[in-house]
Amino acid sequence: MTDWIRIGLLAGAALAACPSARAQPADVAGFDKDSDGRTSRAEYRTGLVAESMKFDRNGDGRVTVKELPAFARIPGVRGPVERIFRSNDLSGDGALSRDELTARAEARFSELDVDRNGFLDAGEIKAGRRGGGR
Fold first, then answer.
1. Helix axes 98-112, 122-130, angle to 10 degrees
2. Is residue 94 within 8 Å of 107, Cβ to Cβ?
3. Closest CA to 50 of 33, 66, 37
4. What is the DSSP letter of 116?
5. For 50-74, b where at least 16 C-beta lie within 10 A, e where not — what string?
């Protein structure tokens, strides 16, 4: 999985994990607001946008590459981060807006929800991390 969402999740993994996570992947447990062991489209979208917007240091409602954590500028990480960032900057203004992040979250949810039941479970998240299907 090489997309803006992965970078956001990597950077925000500690924030996304909750104490009740049990053995679930952080992005399922962290976004699973009703604690049913799966993540709905709405939970995923809301959680992912909220985690990404935590990088909005100046509070303008947009995230720029310069606002990302220092690890995003490490050689070997910087290039892919910038490429992913540009590919999701639909307006081409050099920033990711809430609307652009929402659109990416919707697209990524559809990619991950391989059984098309409207929910992500631990297996789908794990398969998505490996870059494949279930």
1. 100
2. no
3. 33
4. -
5. ebbbebbeeeeebbbbebbeeebee
pLDDT (tens, 9 = 90+) of the chain, 134 residues, equals: 445 555 554 444 323 333 333 334 445 557 888 888 899 999 999 999 999 999 999 999 999 999 998 888 888 888 888 888 899 999 999 999 999 999 999 999 999 999 999 999 988 988 887 765 44
Q: Cβ–Cβ contacts within 10 Å for residue 128, how many?
A: 24
Do 112 and 120 meet the contact criterion of CB atoms below 8 Å apart? yes
Kindly give, in sequence order, each residue whose CB lies less than 8 Å from that of residue 27, ignoring residues fewer than 6 positions away.
Answer: 9, 16, 39, 47, 125
CA dist 119 → 71, 108, 115, 125 (Å):
31, 12, 9, 10
Determine the residue type at 80: P
pTM for the complete prediction?
A: 0.72
Amino acid letter, residue 95: A
